[in-house]
């Protein structure tokens, strides 16, 4: 690693330690512009910087949205709506910056077979940031377009991930996040459950066969998949019971 690249990396680490994620993101963007495809450690710093920037915007938007829903006065509601739109625009700007960098630069550097892991990582990152945009969109046509783009990126990532071990954290993380997309954005509980279960079952089977590819982050992601699957399955069961009760009530009347 060149001295200049190492200096940028160390500065980014300091920015992370002090939670200056805006500085961190700028440093990592500069690294991509100067040296192209990041190393695994640099790649993770890139993800952490933008993920934390977006997380603050997502939290702020959710708080403002909740306040708006509970607001009783028109004047307060208008002010809250304007402020919420400002936060939504800031979030969209950050996410668009990420997705454009991935589409215009990083994915072009991941075409070889040896870069499949990177390709899955960046397609997932692109899809995730498109998903974050959909959370704050109100206009239906715009939201539909971004949802379709996110779904396409997730599916492309899944296709590329077929070449990775089932217990690889990037593949498991993709199953986790795509299932969340199905659940939260598309409201498709059955598909979300199926994706989570398939990803979890495939990884467990591979690990039970004593596969050499054991990854440090896999266990945590598998637990998150299991937690979501349990929660969503309970929701499905509750809805089924509710429908059965309603049918009984209707037939008794």
Automatic annotation (TrEMBL):
Segments forming domain 14-3-3: 5-248
Cellular component GO terms held in the UniProt record: cytoplasm
Xref: SUPFAM superfamilies: 14-3-3 protein
One Pfam family, short name: 14-3-3
Comp. bias intervals (Basic and acidic residues): 236-253
Protein name per UniProt: 14-3-3-like protein 2
Site positions for Interaction with phosphoserine on interacting protein: 58, 131
Chain segments carrying region Disordered: 233-253
GO annotation terms (biological process): intracellular protein localization; signal transduction
Domain of life: Eukaryota
Record family assignment: Belongs to the 14-3-3 family.
Species of provenance: Ciona intestinalis
